[in-house]
Amino acid sequence: MKELQVLARKLLAEGSVGVVIGYEEGPHGVRPAFITRSEDAGRLVFDPRCVHNLATYLSPRRSVVKGLGKPAVVVKGCDARAVAGLLRESQLTRDDVVLIAVRCGGVMQHPAQHVDLRAETVADRCAGCDVREPHLFDFMVGEAPTAPPATDRREARIRELEAGSPADRWAFWQQELARCVRCHACRQACPMCFCERCVADKTQPGWIESSPHPRGNLAFHLTRAIHQAGRCVDCGECERACPAGIPLGLLNRKLALVVAERFGHHASDDPSVPAPIGSYASNDGQEFIL
Amino acid sequence: MDTLFITRENLAALTADLLASGTHVAAPTRASDAQTEYRYVTDFAQVRLDGSMPRRSLKELFLPPTEPLLRWRQHQGDVELQEVPTSFPPTVVLGARPCDAAAVDVLDRVMGWDYRDELWFGRRAATTVISLACPGVDDLCFCSAVGGSPESTRGADLLLTPVTDGYHVTVVTDKGRSLLSAHPSRFGALPASGPLPAGPRIPAPGPLPLGQIRTWLESNFDHPLWHEVALRCHGCGACASVCPTCHCFDIVDEPEGVDRGTRRRNWDTCQTSVFTLHASGHNPRHDQGARFRQRLMHKFSIYPDKFGEVLCTGCGRCARACPAGQDIVELLGRIGALAAGNGHEKVEA
Amino acid sequence: MNLYQPHLVRVTDVVDETADTRTLRLQFKDPSVAESFDFRAGQFGEYSAFGAGECTFCIASPPTRKGYIECTFKAVGKATNALRGLGVGDTMGFRGPYGNHFPLDRMEGASLVFIAGGIGLAPVRCVIWNVLDQRDRYGDVTIVYGARSVGDLVYKHELEDWAARTDVRLWQTVDPGGQTPDWHGEIGFVPAIVEKAAPTADNAYAVVCGPPIMIKFTLPVLAKLGFPPERVYTTLENRMKCGLGKCGRCNVGPVYVCKDGPVFSAAELAQLPAEF
User: Fold this and answer.
1) Are residues A15 and A51 both part of a single domain?
2) Higher model confidence: residue B201 or residue B23?
3) A124 and A45, same structural domain?
4) Residue C76 burial (CB count, 10 A)
5) Which residues numbered 53-92 in B keep a CB inside 8 Å of some CB on A?
6) Is residue A274 part of a domain?
7) For residue B349, is pLDDT > 60?
8) Considering only alpha carbons, which residue of chain C is nearest residue A204?
9) Is residue A206 assigned to a domain?
10) Which residues lie below 8 Å from residue C192, measured CB to CB, with a gap of 6+?
């Protein structure tokens, strides 16, 4: 990705950023890269294996990254939504970060060693993507992307769950969440879970039991899903990070659909669009109170 | 060690016998997302012996993700404690990976260090481990680099090696022998014919210079390497949860009513920011560099120092699970190179 | 019965040492445990308020006094606040004794210098009483103790006892500004008072415990006085859970504080990475 490398080299050489956060080739696939020297800019790549949401590294709690200085970060459209979220929620000011947006035609669901983007391998979340050319950026690189070859397989799964009885849905989630061991990878990888002290870690009072039993797991995951409602940018990192294969994206996606339906709100890559929790409209539904 | 033979049909029958007698059977199974995981089975049909790697290890059979330590009941300032059992129902693990079985043996060291953990050893005593020789999974496996092997019998009571029509059965321990004696009709003598079919094999990596790595770790506490690798680390503990040898745990009191509750131990990890956080707010490991370093040092410096061997059996799960692309084989290779003084190691400060 | 199951103990006395520091005196409910319980000065235990969790404190009473144990603590978190909510007659849990101990055998015949700050006096007080209960085994005993203010001094009645004794030389101090109009002790930080007291290092051991900053400035003073780091001891406070070497939490460099400590010499401490 020559254009990206040239840009990174320039930004570092002129000292306008202390680090370029992008992707590099690791020994077993691509992984996040932190380029601090212009001569290393050649390590930067971008291709459909680049699923990671690098906006997560902008979280103020990541002191090691902060120590590198002002970052430039490579963002796809979905990642730019996360940056917009961080801006919207005052975790970042616009001047604190340089955004290198990449035109993206979809990423792989299970990025492996080699690029292989087809309808069967593309990530579910890429279906219907309207930010293939991100709107929030300082620089734009990459070629105009074609639409990702995708069907949203999650739509069908969500409809299936919705069609089930409450007992069916309860049984499904009890079974899936039974595998959770509370490693919190979902939370740690999520760009919107930036709280310095997560409510699940509080002990006075202990709102959420830390034990990985059905009660504790349900409490944690439902709380996290509610906290993400309207904020989740559908980057899929939580589900990818989960070492137990729990389909967390379904919960977040469902709540996103609820928020869209009730408040007409989608997590937007425009930071000036207010968050649903911080604003109201006079025609917001109130049938649950009245 | 004796070697016998079991057909696949007899293995199924043996499993049925065990289940019928009330023995719990744990084996690799197919999970709802098509991955493999160790679970208790109710039927041999659920058992998956195709060489696929269970996403977590055997440690949860002996150190469950959450486990009661005691229960209490209070009444007007007085407390009554209810003990939890330290003897457990008989269990057979069918198809353990050699790296996972070896890991359980490695953990016996710390679990028996001066104080004997009755819960761990109670489960150990009740469990018979039947390992399945491994064809290698992918190039993230490195058991041979840390002193193990895909046919290791360490931690196993019996070892099955797949051949045409069935499995060679190597008797490793008396416990394994007892299982055979209890089900004599299922096992037979080795068939006279043919050598083992050599299935496709991932080339096994050569040994890592563990001694040199340990020495380097002990004298490079403040090396900029830690800061560099910590940059991409999320501090999540996915690595620790899938690791067969990570065993750190938390102890919590869980009220279940005004007057009663359970004290539990839960899996925990040094990777979280709150692991060493004092109530005063002081945190001796206050950044991810320090925390990432701790995991490596515990495995490759401290455990060998205390117990004579590394706290790792080379299964590669940490690298497979890590969402940020950390690669333990790469890291150990870099440390090995630094230790050997190869000098071309460029580390970004 | 598994190794994580505590003994039941009853609170028999509660003393508020300061506004935020409390001492509990505890007796084992099981008479056979009460009879047989023994420990060495410096060892710690896991004290629990059922429902809130376990806390790690040294055993603050000396092993020479049988029939009870004591702990002194500040209410800073969930479990310590729950302990603070207990009263005389209430039942709580105790697991222990764990860890190593001060090498009192080695210290016999030597002079002893005890230096403590604030609540850091608690583990030191255990050793002090152990020594005073066997006074003829030891040489000179010097105690330098200070706190931020008069109100922050712990074991105030025992300080009076020690001050009144002729076989102990006690220096008490408060930080500048922490004195009351009737304060007759020193005014100054503990390290400065140690320098003023200038105890001899000749055939002497020092036991130091207090806030990290106090220890940091006291160690050079002791070195200047001629105490070799092998004869200066302290006790580390570390986040712990199991207390017996399994859960991994208190691992610092090559040691487990709960097994190889919590008592360490300054020489041993110098070998540890700065992760405590």
Assistant:
1) yes
2) B23
3) yes
4) 15
5) 55-56, 60, 65-66
6) no
7) no
8) C78
9) yes
10) none
* Residue at which a domain ends, from A92, A113, A141: A141
Instruction: For residues A181 and A80, state if they share a domain.
Output: no
Structural domain tally of chain A?
2
Which chains are within 8 Å of A by 3+ CB pairs? B, C
Contact C51 B249 (CB under 8 A): no
Average pLDDT, integer, range B31-42: 94
Q: Is the pLDDT of residue B348 over 60?
A: no
Query: Angle between the A214-228 and A166-177 helix axes, to the nearest 10 degrees?
Result: 100
Q: Which residues of C touch B (CB under 8 A)?
A: 1-6, 8, 48, 50-54, 76-77, 80, 87, 89-93, 237-239, 241-242, 244-249, 251-254, 256, 259, 273-276
Q: Does the N-terminal peptide bond of residue C262 adopt cis geometry, omega within 30 degrees of 0?
A: yes
- Tokens coding B35: 């991955």
Q: Is C113 in contact with C266 (CB distance < 8 Å)?
A: no
Instruction: Name the amino acid, one letter, at B255.
Output: P
Same domain, A195 and A107: no
Q: Examine the domain organization and report whether A163 and A113 are in the same domain.
A: no
Classify strands B66-75 and B78-83 as parallel, antiparallel or unpaired: antiparallel
* 3-class DSSP state of B249: strand
Using DSSP bridges, classify how beta strands C44-49 and C141-147 pair: parallel, antiparallel or unpaired: unpaired
Asked if residue A157 and residue A126 are part of one domain, the reply reads no
Cα gap A27→A33, rounded to integer Å: 13
Structural domain contains residue A236? yes
Provide the sign of the torsion angle of the four alpha carbons C86, C89, C95, C98, taken in this order. positive
Rounded Cα distance between B176 and B178, Å, is 5
Q: Clarify whether residues A51 and A82 are in a common domain.
A: yes
CA–CA separation, C100 and C8 (whole Å):
23
- Say yes or no: A135 and A170 in one domain: no
CA distances from B21 to B173, B185, C167 (A): 22, 16, 73
pLDDT, tens digit (0-9, with 9 covering 90-100), for B105-159: 999 999 999 999 999 999 999 999 999 999 877 888 999 999 999 999 999 999 9
Name the minimum distance, in Å, from the CA of C30 to any CA of chain B: 12
Q: Which of A76, A107, A141 is the last residue of a domain?
A: A141
CA-nearest of A71, A87, A89 to A17 is A71
- A102-149 pLDDT per residue, tens: 999 999 988 877 888 888 888 988 988 889 999 999 999 999 877 776
Q: Is residue A148 part of a domain?
A: no
- Residue B210: C-alpha distances to residues B98, B140, B243 (Å): 20, 18, 19
Structure tokens at C250: 């208190």
Q: Smallest Cα–Cα separation from C113: which of C195, C214, C213?
A: C195
Whole-angstrom distance, CA of residue B141 vs CA of residue B180 = 31
User: What's the domain range around A253?
Assistant: 153-263
User: C32 to each of C38, C90, C95, how far by Cα in Å?
Assistant: 12, 20, 15
> For chain C, how long is the longest CA-to-CA vector?
55
Q: DSSP class of residue B322?
A: -
**Contact flag C77-A203 (C-beta cutoff 8 Å):** yes
Nearest CA of chain C to the CA of A205: how many Å? 8
Taking only the tens of pLDDT, chain C with its 276 residues reads 899 999 999 999 999 999 999 999 999 999 999 999 999 999 999 999 999 999 999 999 999 999 999 999 999 999 999 999 999 999 999 999 999 999 999 999 999 999 999 999 999 999 999 999 999 999 999 999 999 999 999 999 999 999 999 999 999 999 999 999 999 999 999 999 999 999 999 999 999 999 989 999 999 999 999 999 999 999 998 889 999 999 999 999 999 999 999 999 999 999 999 888
How wide is the angle at C-alpha C236 spanned by C-alphas C234 and C237, nearest 5°? 140
Structure tokens at C153: 């001094």
Is B270 in contact with B332 (CB distance < 8 Å)?
A: no
Nearest alpha carbon to residue A4 among A79, A65, A74, A58 = A74
